[in-house]
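EI: anyone free to look at a 296-residue chain?
SC: sure, send it
EI:
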Amino acid sequence: MELLFMNSSVLVASHRPLNATDGGSLVYERCKDMPAVLIWYLGLQFINMFLGIPANLMVLWLIRKNKGDSSTSDIFILHLAVLDALFCLTPPLELASIVFLTTSSTWYVLRFFYGMKDSSPLFLSCICLDRYMAVVHPVTFTELKDRKHRAALAFLVWLIIVAYAAAKCVGDIRNFEKVFTAMILAAFAFMVFCNISILWALLKQSGTGRDAMHPVKKRAFKMVLIILAIIVFNYFPPVALFPFQHYFSPDVFRCYVHYLAFGLMDFSSSIQPMLYLSKEKPCGRHCCQSSASRIQ
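SC: here you go
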């Protein structure tokens, strides 16, 4: 996820270096004088692997187990869990490519998975859209509640993700970073809009304010607020930092800013399933959907 005017000889196609070598040097060697954030990033990736894989598998198991009582958003949550579980498999190969391997072939595989992760906000946007329609436009939501619509949308999103990841894997498409820049900015703005609209709608429908809100709506309000905070925490750093790349020296941006932003974004692969699992007990299944039925 680089910014529009990023020099592709430094970082290519919006996610980490093009290959393991740059003039014969490993990625780690290029950052050996300022390794702190790179080490933090690799550590976070392995935490992501050990936490994210079982968490996402648990989400898949719960959705399958509760198939008869699933919410309309579960189809998007299921596909997002599959994507995140696959991405969480990459840290060992990434560590080897950054620290040990001098071949560039492994970066083709990594760039494909980076492309998949870059596109994950598309499924998040679908989840936010589904909840937005349920709370803000409940009548239209009821009319479009057929799961076939959501299955078709999920299939379309997968086509976009695979096409984007394949193009990223090639690595030499001119101005390809602009595609990601447009996608992440649009998805971030859309998710923030949907969640703020949901919060505002719940507050208005509560009548006298949050304290007088129905318990189900109050739980929905708190959950959407948490989701909004996670979206900002995970996706705001690349949105906020990359457009100002020219204010940083090349080394500082490559070894500090770059890995800081991606470390936080990639950690969403663990935070998102943990959020889903945490709300199973106290909140039942998807408070936003429950509150929507009461709003109608």
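EI: The chain has a mean pLDDT of 78.
SC: 👍
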